[in-house]
Input
Amino acid sequence: MEEVVVADMLTDRFQDAHRCPIGEGQLLEDLGYLADTPAAQEIINGTYNFPENMCKYTRLLLEEASHIFHECAGETIKTHVSSEDFRSWWSTANEKNRYTT
Output
């Protein structure tokens, strides 16, 4: 029974992106699912032409991503996550606040 509850929670969690403005319409077409497109680079560069009907808050978020990128561009970012890092992070994650049974 617990497996069914967990499976339902995970299904909802991983489908959230399909229900938000970044997961549909022109923005999804421009970014794709991996955001490895020229439009993604334009967002980071601050040169992307946002669709006029775009959600105001999604636009603000993406504009802020550009600002943050430019603030941190000279810093090295560790892209490898070790098994220990992964276990350590998940051992402190609090999912009880997001989902209730």
